[in-house]
Amino acid sequence: MTATSAKGQGIEYADTASEAYRAALRVIESVEPRIAEATRKELDDQRHSLKLIASENYASPAVLLTMGTWFSDKYAEGTVGHRFYAACQNVDTVEALAAEHARELFGASYAYAQPHSGIDANLVAYWAILATRVETPGLAELGSKHINDLSEADWESLRAKLGNQKLMGMSLDTGGHLTHGFRPNISGKMFHQRQYGTNPETGFIDYDAVAAAVREFKPLILVAGYSAYPRRVNFAKMREIADEVGATFMVDMAHFAGLVAGKVFTGDEDPVPHAHVVTTTTHKSLRGPRGGLVLATEEYAPAVDKGCPMVLGGPLSHVMAAKAVALAEARQPEFRTYAQAVADNAQSLADGFVKRDASLVTGGTDNHLVLLDVTSFGLTGRQAESALLDSGIVTNRNAIPADPNGAWYTSGIRFGTPALTTRGFGADEFDRVAELVVEVLSNTQPAAGPNGPSKAKYTLADGTADRVRAAAAELLEANPLYPGLTL
Ligand code: DSN
Questions:
Q1: Residue positions of the PTM N6-(pyridoxal phosphate)lysine (predicted)?
Q2: Does the beta carbon of 55 lie inside 6 Å of ligand 1?
Q3: Is the pTM of this model over 0.90?
Q4: Catalytic residue among 232, 237, 290, 336
Q5: Could you state, in order of their start, the residue ranges of all structural domains in the chain?
Q6: Which residue's CA is the closest to the ligand 1 atom numbered 6?
Q7: CA distance 434 to 349
Q8: CATH topology of domain 335-478
């Protein structure tokens, strides 16, 4: 087992995990062989490609196996010890353990393990903040009244009041997330929204500009966090800005929760001591199952705890169980080694691009992701994404600040190091990855379109994809995914 791999991904688990998966696939095969086949193929595809999507990872067999149980069959609306269904004693155990591990890992006073995703976690947080902060009969009572008991007058009052609440988060094109007040998302509809961006020259957050915008707009909620900003955030400073106008400070740490858990982000860079409410997903750098979590101070905890039925339906108890397992893994000392390697590897990847004259948003990184501006290669993000995929390199196209190609074609490619670090890649391997990416992009040309160069079509010089695939295969074979696991 490498120093950075999760417990359960090492060779000592391989025989047991292999037996478990072989048995599971035989059972699936007896009902729908095409699903068994697709499942085998997915592992094969993941094993044989360079996975650089910043929001993906490889969970341990322990986490994955935990999801395939009869907890999936149980309804458990409500919260620990207070369910709307009978016979939830084992779900209570699971949910309480997931919350306990989350509290201990992040040093939070309260944790809520039910959100099915990051978007759900953010919606739970928004409604809990409204329920806690806004003094109308309808909203104030959401924290204590069952949703079915709200009268039509309560709802009318709630809707009227919602129309007057304000939310400010980071704009999508500078690295924020849809749910941080992007106008077409419900977060940009249920609130009056305004967004802060980054300095157009440097690409960094300009805290004075954020403070000025917050002073002017006076949001009820100030959101920090990102999905494509390659730098750390000073959460102590953001909290001061929020406090100046009495805003609730919320941080969505979905992307970098693993770096918080692994103590790479500490002090002013750790959101938990500074924010009133922190949300996250559990499947990105945290390396758990696909799902969400909310952490909150005591003030917000009672309202967050009513996430179901306020926002959520039946909890996914099998996923909460897997969250508990993943959080237990993240509390092991190896996880700190892993998290530090994620950050070091991102540095190496960024340095590898810079020394080969590729242009990066902000000029580099100090977290787990790198945002490459592919306009210097004469390409759109879409062309670059496709050419890289042809060569066995899996990334996603992403807008860059003030993107000339818009959100569909984009001008950027986002790279992240969490997944390949789990496989055991180190600084040298990530430098080689940068070399291979530059090789692909330097050999890609936009194809001609009806009105000039196409934004989608491209040609890749003969032999490039095969050459890069072969080089990638060497790296992948030296750092196998789930070593020893055979189906
Ligand atoms: N889809 C996630 C990401 O890739 O960053 C965010 O929701």
A1: 284
A2: yes
A3: yes
A4: 290
A5: 72-330, 335-478
A6: 227
A7: 6
A8: Aspartate Aminotransferase, domain 1 (3.90.1150)
